[in-house]
């Protein structure tokens, strides 16, 4: 049975392990247990996002008397972890969940490396063969995630990426519309923001490689090799190769380096990459997702921006969590994104349209944060 001691333990653990997300709880001055089922927090200042932070994935409650293991997490949700390997995560309904029991008894999440990156399939292998035949042409649900693909410069490493003219040249080389025409299908759209709705309002003028070459010369570039890193998956490999060819046309030498997903949080990327192809997927709680993007120590923005850039961002965000009106907070985000565009700290690329394929008998499917469905709401029509 979860108690307030588990809540306090979870919060203390975030600080003890120096979680990249500990900034969310920096307004807590102290916490007091008030019995087994109540806890009082004393804040240093008003914080309208306090409940957002405490309902985020980073504050998933862990038991105080069970040693943490990533392969056997003990939580408080509608499912319990039955098994976890590199290939599959098995979830089983948690009968003692404090709300309604999940309708499905068991969910298996299989990692299929060769599957298209923008696609998730929800299958019902237990149904009889006749029904399985129907599954091959099952239903599709298209959705667009908040967030985008982008190219980011590493300002913590010396190099030409610090020169504004170099970054302007790369903005012309990394032509979003041309990338859409040559490499992407109808499942992508050019990005000028992390938010798709804002990108739809933007204009994307034609670019000139001749202008890019002039800007490159203006930066003082003289044939040095620039290190471009990307995640080792098909889509990023194709974009990196396309970018390398475009750079060759203006005399810019790129050396391509693929990294494994398991290396994402290693120091190697900060130490070796001049530029990096990245992707950001925001939560359904978009305001919290953007705050996390700018402030969480695990994001590429936090790791690749220097302290001067962070101070500018913090200046904009200082009062964000205290503002009562959403419109006021939206204006702050607009100013930050405009600063990023004007200075080309990163180059917005494109938004991906994702697809979920599912058996016609599967009901209750709706897309939640990070493109996942709420498994507790799924049910099967026989």
UniProtKB/TrEMBL annotation:
Gene3D superfamilies attached to this UniProt entry: Dipeptide-binding Protein, Domain 3, Periplasmic binding protein-like II
Source organism: Brevibacillus borstelensis AK1
Domain of life: Bacteria
GO biological process, alphabetically ordered: peptide transport
Solute-binding protein family domain mapped to chain residues: 2-279
Protein name: Solute-binding protein family 5 domain-containing protein
InterPro entries for this protein: SBP_5, SBP_5_dom
High-level lineage: Bacteria, Bacillati, Bacillota, Bacilli, Bacillales
GO molecular function list: peptide transmembrane transporter activity
């Amino acid at each position: 049975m979860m108690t307030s001691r588990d809540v306090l333990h979870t919060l203390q653990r975030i600080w003890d392990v120096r979680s990249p997300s500990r900034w969310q709880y920096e307004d807590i001055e102290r916490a007091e247990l008030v019995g087994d089922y109540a806890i009082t927090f004393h804040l240093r200042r008003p914080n309208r996002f306090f409940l957002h932070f405490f309902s985020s994935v980073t504050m998933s409650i862990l038991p105080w008397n069970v040693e943490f293991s990533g392969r056997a997490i003990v939580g408080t949700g509608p499912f319990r972890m039955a098994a976890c390997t590199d290939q599959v995560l098995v979830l089983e309904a948690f009968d003692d969940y404090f709300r309604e029991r999940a309708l499905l008894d068991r969910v298996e999440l299989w990692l299929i490396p060769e599957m298209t990156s923008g696609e998730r399939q929800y299958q019902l292998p237990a149904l009889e063969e006749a029904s399985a035949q129907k599954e091959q042409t099952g239903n599709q649900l298209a959705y667009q995630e908040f967030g985008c693909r982008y190219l980011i410069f590493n300002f913590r490493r010396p190099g030409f990426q610090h020169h504004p003219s170099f970054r302007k040249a790369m903005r012309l080389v990394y032509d979003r519309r041309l990338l859409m025409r040559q490499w992407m299908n109808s499942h992508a759209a050019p990005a000028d923001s992390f938010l798709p709705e804002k990108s739809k309002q933007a204009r994307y003028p034609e670019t000139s490689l001749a202008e890019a070459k002039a800007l490159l010369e203006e930066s003082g570039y003289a044939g040095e090799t620039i290190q471009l890193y990307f995640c080792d998956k098909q889509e990023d490999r194709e974009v990196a190769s396309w970018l390398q060819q475009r750079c060759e046309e203006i005399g810019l030498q790129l050396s391509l380096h693929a990294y494994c997903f398991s290396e994402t949080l290693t120091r190697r990327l900060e130490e070796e990459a001049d530029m990096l192809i990245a992707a950001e997927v925001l939560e359904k709680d978009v305001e919290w997702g953007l705050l996390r993007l700018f402030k969480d120590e695990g994001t590429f923005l936090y790791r690749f921006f220097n302290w001067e850039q962070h101070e500018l961002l913090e200046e904009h965000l200082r009062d964000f969590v205290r503002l009562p009106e959403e419109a006021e907070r939206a204006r702050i985000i607009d100013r930050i994104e405009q600063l990023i565009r004007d200075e080309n700290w990163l180059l917005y690329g494109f938004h991906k349209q994702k697809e979920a394929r599912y058996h016609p008998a599967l009901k209750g499917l709706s897309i939640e944060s990070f493109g996942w469905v709420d498994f507790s709401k799924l049910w099967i029509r026989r």
